[in-house]
Amino acid sequence: MKKILNYLLLFSIVSMLVFTSCKEDEPDPPDPKSAYETLSDYLTANSLEITDILNNWIITASDIDGNEADYYIMDIRGATDYGTCHITGAHNVAYGDVVTEAANAAGKPIVVACYTGQGAAHAVVALRLSGFPNAKTLKWGMSAWNVKNDKWTTAKSDTATGHAGWTTDATTAVAEFSAPDLTATATDGEGILEERVGVLLDGGFKGIPAIDVLTNYGDYFINNYWAQADVDLYGHIKGAYRINPINFVNLDPSKTIVTYCWTGQTSSIITAYLTVLGYDAKSLKFGANGMIYSALQSHQWIASGSYTCE
Fold it and tell me: What's the pTM?
């Protein structure tokens, strides 16, 4: 009996050693994906990356004129301005309702019109991320349709010329940063995206005046979305980076990210997309047209719209 007990004890010890050894050999389970990683993977898998959103996203007034019936036009201006002059057949839609309204497009490509093209660019991001890949912004907004809608002429400015916040020094060297701390109640990519588009639509247009950024440039992470040749020609806001194309690892999520371009329209697209990803982002209103208008050799606003109003 004693011998049997010894065998049993030996067997137990060997079994415990084998079991413990196997447990030690097993790799630790991978860390669960963050909401940011889950959303990013979903956007990539569904061709919804920033390069996809920036592909053929704008349309001119001349392209629409005479072809109004080919598009489902959403005019997101206030009711009074819409009543004064709008494109024939355009629907007056609140910015926050554009995705819901898009269900009525019946397959037509969607055009979003606002005052200057900046707010509409935000709406187009929401639409493209919600299953309407052909949505486009009316370039320059309704200001380009008819001069009676012009909101651009009074916005053009040379406020950066001679300002202490403008420089011809080299832009700031890029660095790498961690991803934003994106929170969501959904755990799957589709659900997180739907939540984030809702945040974008609830928050309205994320714009910031040029003078605020020029005066307080140290408070922001500023991205000059130009080619290097243009930075060499015109200069840039002090402290600005030049990240074009956008690489998210080069954006600092601990600061408000201000993007600027020529007209505030492309930067609005980028800002809206960054907002969806969880960044605190703003678009510099009116872009270079609101800072160095007289010096611009291209991309200048020139009032000329004379298309028919309804």
Answer: 0.90
